[in-house]
Design brief:
- It contains no helices and 18 strands.
- The protein has 179 residues and is mostly beta strands.
- Strands 1, 3, 5, 7, 8, 10, 11, 13, 14, 16 and 17 form an eleven-stranded parallel β-sheet that branches. A seven-stranded parallel β-sheet has the order 2-4-6-9-12-15-18, with no helix packed on it.
Length: 179
Amino acid sequence: YCIVVIGKIVDDVQINAKSYVDVIGFSADVTIQTDSNVHGVIFDSIIETEWRDITIRRKGDVTSGVHACYIKGTTDKTCRLVNCSFINEISAAINSCHGITIDNSASPTITGCKVQGGSGGNSCHGIWIGGSASPTITGCKAQGGSGGSYCHGILIGNSASPTITGCKVKVVGVVVIAM
C-alpha cells in the first residue's frame, strides 16, 4: 500500500505505522496536538516501509515525556525515513521530549531528516538512541531542545551501536553515555 499525504493535518491521536505501508508527502505537515501522553508516530517492530517528505510535529500540554517519533521493538533497516522532519514542539517544563527516540533492538534507516527536541524541559534531545538499537543515520540535521539543560543533538546510550555519517548536530553535539 501507499498513502499520499497532501497539505496540513492536525489531529489528536497517535499515528501507528504499519509494515508494508509507505507514506509519501507532498507539502505534508502533520501535527499531533493533544494533552494526552502519546507520541506523534510509533514504529513498533516495523519492516518494509518507507516514509518520505513528511513533517510530523508533536504539540500539547503533557505531563510526561513524549516524542515526535518513537522507533522501537525489532523495527529493521527496511524501515526507511527519507527527507522527513520530526519536530517536538512541547514547550512545558517536561523532561525527555525527543524529536526521535530509537530503542530496543530497532535498526531503521534514516536519511536526510531534520529532527528537533522539545524546548521546555531538560534532556530533550534531537535523537536519543538507547537499548541495543543500531540505526543507520545519514545526512541528517539534529538539534536538542532550547529551553532546558542537557539537551543534545544526538545522545547515544552505551549499548547502542548506530552508524552516523554526514550529519549536522546542534546543541552540545553527539554524546555517548554509560547507562
